[in-house]
Amino acid sequence: MVNYAVRVPSVTSVAAPGRRLAREARRLQLLDLAVGIVSDVGLDKLSAETVSRAAGVSKALVFHYFPSNRDLQVAVVREAAQNLLASLDVDPSKTPDERLRAGVDAFIDFIEADPTTYQSVARGAGSDPALLEVFEETRHGVVALIAAAIGLREGELPPGLRLAVRSWIALVEESVLHWLDGEPVPRAELVEFLHRAAQHLFADPFALKGIAILNPD
Amino acid sequence: MVNYAVRVPSVTSVAAPGRRLAREARRLQLLDLAVGIVSDVGLDKLSAETVSRAAGVSKALVFHYFPSNRDLQVAVVREAAQNLLASLDVDPSKTPDERLRAGVDAFIDFIEADPTTYQSVARGAGSDPALLEVFEETRHGVVALIAAAIGLREGELPPGLRLAVRSWIALVEESVLHWLDGEPVPRAELVEFLHRAAQHLFADPFALKGIAILNPD
User: How much is the ipTM here?
Assistant: First the structure.
């Protein structure tokens, strides 16, 4: 771990870290409000105007933290993605296979909380380099979680397994997007399908060359 | 094969269908040229200017067929997508499993012919509703091909199998995009992995409820 003590700025006053924390807390407060607004009105309608009204602060203050409406929208998506990653990171005392299954369940929970926003953002992510970047970071985060579950660092994944994990994430994203459109199959069956897909893909000889860590048998 | 003799342009009214064919032939000729230009300079640099120079015709004529540079670019992607679907539609006398494997191989061949364009278009498709539409049409086309290979119409696919097929297509797209970035595994192994993934996913109880048509065993 980095020792943050050595980073305390000496130029102004000892209160600088406190001010920084206060700023960060205020930013998070506005962001939390913004996340709630998005699930009501959609990402496109989120603006400094709506946030300032909900927070009872000036629009100028919102613009101080988020220079444009687009910055605000991207910050909300990034915050949501971090919440998602946190929700996927389940009890490390469980087995890799249990964590995988719980992760799939948590992913669908997350999407179900605001399916409209997920659909519009996921289908249109290519329209905005900043959103593409958030999606890429999130996928990297999921790869790192899966690597950790099987006792590896993200950089230690064999190339075939890395490709299998990336391709499974794409499979999950597409499955859930497809499923949201009318829920053609029971949710529980979808979870089992995605879980079995991971068991199969990650234990494929291509991925593990015989190391079937995630295969429960 | 089309009989090009009937395409000889004629000015008189009785030749209206012939004129339509001549227009279509000229459009396709420009489109073929444009596809070649894209693999040299990239989709973004494709313009009426570059096509008119390559074809030795006026820019106005190119604009007559493609009202804007963006229309031209989308038409090229649509043409490429149709070529892709045609290349995936292999010998119907083969078994579904053989057709599936040959289809994976043909898909990778197609991407390898111009990986840069595929990467930029696939990663940025969300930026353009017209491109998103072409991608969606193409995925529909692939679903229909797979349905046909197992003796079903596209509309007859059970909901679980439809979801499995859609999710497999996403898995293939992501795998190939990931693989293009440094080709971390041998091409032949990638084909086998994607083929086995289809065998597994389409024969999953969720997808077929016991009808393991595509499973070779």
Answer: 0.83
